[in-house]
Q: What sequence folds into this?
């Protein structure tokens, strides 16, 4: 009893020192007693609140042009668990050529297959024309008002805060001269004037389903050896294609955590001219440039 009294006295002294109003504590206790929540109720309330947030802001999670900054991986909270049917039995990328769009649509376009189409960039001048200096020139010339700042920019491990800052790096670094800081970054192009210029050098991959339009925003990723995108899952609704214009890149592909005992991890190597097609919303993916030559790719989602 004495011990309890001593404890109480010390607690009250502590509360006084910290300027805590003891009446508040009393009323809080009352509140707690009245509304004491068991685990089940707490879980239901948290779920309901998250569902309300999702209903209100969920559409922003699907947009590549989010207007509010969403904490990293926040969207994964709402991902429905996979039943693993998309990845079961897939152990490698499938290299194909001369593929009919109907066959592609029926067999590969909307399931878990990871395809590498080797003959889809035959007439594209982008393979010769696109490099750091060409893209810098296009953006400086056709976007003097920097509308492109509204598009998304992924800096990965660099400190660049925008595409323009990245395109302004000094010449030696841009050329990946030894001793300069490495870089890898990516961006979406939501500037229509620039899309028109860039699309003079490539076209909609011939094997895509006939009904699929080339109207999605294009994504460009570029950078040097040993660098790439970290392991991640996208939240963009549709599957995508990506053409390797320069350099060689490895894709490390992994199933979602709930499928790791049923599905396989594998890697795919893409060379200049290859087009990789995969559902980046369903496969975790990480990229790594293998070549000395700077890797440049262009891609988009397809419906
Ligand atoms: O090409 C890269 O490095 C990353 C591409 C990517 O993450 C994507 O297309 O979803
Ligand atoms: Fe991705």
A:
């Amino acid at each position: 009893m004495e011990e309890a009294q001593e404890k109480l006295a010390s607690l009250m002294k502590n509360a006084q020192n910290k300027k805590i109003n003891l009446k508040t504590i009393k009323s809080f206790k009352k509140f707690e007693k009245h509304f004491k929540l068991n685990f089940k109720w707490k879980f239901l309330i948290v779920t309901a609140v998250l569902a309300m947030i999702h209903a209100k802001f969920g559409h922003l999670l699907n947009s590549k042009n989010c207007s509010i900054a969403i904490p990293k991986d926040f969207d994964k909270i709402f991902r429905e668990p996979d039943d693993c049917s998309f990845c079961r039995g897939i152990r490698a990328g499938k290299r194909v050529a001369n593929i009919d769009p109907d066959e592609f649509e029926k067999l590969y376009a909307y399931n878990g297959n990871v395809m590498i189409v080797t003959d889809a960039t035959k007439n594209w001048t982008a393979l010769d024309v696109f490099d750091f200096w060409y893209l810098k020139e296009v953006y400086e010339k056709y976007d003097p008002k920097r509308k492109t700042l509204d598009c998304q920019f992924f800096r990965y491990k660099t400190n660049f805060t925008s595409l323009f800052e990245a395109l302004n790096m000094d010449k030696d670094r841009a050329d990946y001269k030894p001793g300069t800081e490495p870089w890898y970054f990516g961006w979406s192009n939501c500037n229509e004037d620039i899309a028109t210029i860039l699309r003079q050098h490539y076209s909609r991959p011939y094997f895509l389903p006939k009904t699929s339009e080339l109207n999605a925003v294009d994504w460009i990723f570029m950078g040097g050896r040993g660098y790439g995108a970290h392991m991640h899952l996208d939240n963009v609704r549709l599957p995508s294609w990506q053409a390797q214009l320069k350099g060689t890149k490895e894709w490390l592909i992994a199933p979602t955590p709930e499928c790791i005992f049923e599905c396989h991890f594998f890697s795919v190597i893409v060379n200049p001219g290859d087009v990789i097609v995969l559902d980046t919303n369903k496969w975790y993916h990480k990229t790594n440039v293998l070549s000395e030559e700077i890797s440049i790719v262009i891609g988009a989602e397809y419906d």
